[in-house]
Amino acid sequence: MATRKEHDFIGELEISDDVYYGVQTFRAMENFNISHDRLKNFPRFIRTMARVKKAAAMANCELGLLDKEKEGAIIKACDKILEGGYYDQFVVDMFQGGAGTSTNMNANEVIANIALEILGHKKGEYQYLHPNDHVNLSQSTNDAYPTALRMALHDYLSDLAKAMEHLKKAYERKAIEFKDVLKMGRTQLQDAVPMTLGREFQTFAVMIGEDIERVLEARKLVLEINLGGTAIGTGINSHPDYPKVVEKKLREITGFEYKVADDLIEATQDTGAYVQISGVLKRVATKLSKVCNDLRLLSSGPKCGLNEINLPKMQPGSSIMPGKVNPVIPEVVNQVCFYVIGADVSVTFASEGGQLQLNVFEPVIAYSLFNSIVMLEKAMKTLADKCIDGVTANEKICSDFVYNSIGIVTALNPYIGYENSASIAKEALNTGKRVYDLALERGLLSKEKLDEILTPANMLNPHMTAKK
Known about the structure:
This protein has 468 residues and is mostly helical. It is 58% helix and 7% strand. It contains 17 helices and eight strands. The strands form four sheets. A two-stranded antiparallel sheet has the order 1-2. Strands 3-4 form a two-stranded antiparallel sheet. A hairpin with a 2-residue loop joins strand 3 and strand 4. Helix 2 crosses helix 8, helix 6 packs parallel to helix 12 and helix 7 runs antiparallel to helix 10.
């Protein structure tokens, strides 16, 4: 196999001539074999790194720091990556020391070697175009990496919001389908008062709708970037006009209003936006998991549980119990939610662990947030398509629960008083008699009035019936 020699200040290494990464990426591969989850598995992050490098080259050329030929080669190299090429060359582990330096150098080396070939040179001939001197010009890992991270989060959160909207619409379709299905509402897992199955699913839609707003609000936080701050935010080794020029170029490339922070020293060390985003993800996961708990409970049985709804039968549920079907889709979504809630703890500790002018733990923040968002996105699409769309109602079971429940005695309170209602409830519980029959036996209400009060319309809209 043909090789080329590359060196850094530590020493010289033989690098396979087939690869576009270089010596610093190779050392990172040897040092950080931790998660087996490589940068290539996060294409959005690769693309945003390429956009940062492209914007930097354009800004450096405009400021007279980079000649037109090198700028053109770097831009073309970045465009090849943005078109989906060379992802397999981004090989560093997402878990790494050095605050993301290995990721930044992986990008610098790959882009430099693609650009060298565009210029007619061989990989590794860095005297013509260098990963540090040219691709990384006016940058540091400490501003390039977090800027790419924030841009990737912006893209990830946009996709998450779309998946949430997809699930919301699935809930809404079921809310319409089940709008006339009378059922018993429950509090503390005990009978409460009647409602409809449609209202139950509409509540799910409202819950996720609120969280879509929170996700879109959180997405705005990552529009502020620290590009131009270089090492600690002072802008060392960059042109004084570089921040405003690279901001303009980044906006042109992406179409989004990214803004360089007013205080770059603060922005370089502050990871508060990640904590807030992670908190929103935890909120989304917590509420989504609660809905999945409800789905599993409502579908429990089929003979010895609530059995008010049927979930789609996705696969056999047991290797030993014939005929058993499990709620596997809500179960897997529950597990995703547990993961996201746990990842929030990692983000919190990583943010808190920052020291002085830099937080070195952004790699685990990136890994945790990227995985949480991607898993939530996939989980919501799975829940919508493989579960919610196929839910059916057991209408008779739902209505029987209502009319056989002592909970409907609450509807009689305004007419017979609390003490009479409580007495009827106690006797119904002890004897198994229906509330309806006991109210008639005691002569507290006429059959006509009782029928009026306990019609589905009046139980669902109790303000409709005036006391007489």
